[in-house]
Amino acid sequence: MRVVVLGIPGVGKTTVVQKLVPMLRGAKLANFGSIMFQEAKGRKWVRDRDGMRKLPVQRQRILQESAASRISRMKEPVVLVDTHLFIRTLEGFWPGLPFEMVRALKPTHLVLVEASTDEILSRRATDKLRERDSLTREELAEEKALARTLLAVSSTLTGAPMMFVNNAEGKADEAAAAVARALGKG
Description:
Helix content is 46%, strand content 19%. By secondary structure, the protein is of the alpha/beta class. It has a single domain (2-182), classed as Rossmann fold (3-Layer(aba) Sandwich). The strands form two sheets. Strands 2-3-1-6-7 form a five-stranded parallel β-sheet, with helices on both faces. Strands 4-5 form a two-stranded antiparallel ribbon. Helix 1 (13-20) packs across helix 7 (172-182). The two termini are 15 Å apart.
């Protein structure tokens, strides 16, 4: 089973995934951005993870291909891939799972973690660990719509079922349990 868990920054995707790992026996977590960052840091392209968004798209593609290749070789019974459907770059929105990457990952399931606009704005404003873009409510609404569109495209390309899970404030355990149930593990 290869479950790709997606969401825009601030939905609490990583929190949900971290709660999901112990619910799925033999699950391995693969954070796509962290794997890309290891490669970027090794090449001395960036100093921090958020700097990757500012790299030229061509360099980001190299990092994506490397990460997808590493993840595709994982042999655990369940691989949870924590990633984004798109990245807001200096060149515009760029798919986090272009055709080649989604094909290499071979997902069996696609999960979009969502939250209310107010929750996302609040989480982004208070996240001290990451450099988050400051967006208007309208820009955030566009990101949420784009995420759903790209999820549908990814599902169409892979044949993997897609699901939406709401991560309301303080309810990450419930969101993770809903995913586990959908995967037949809860």
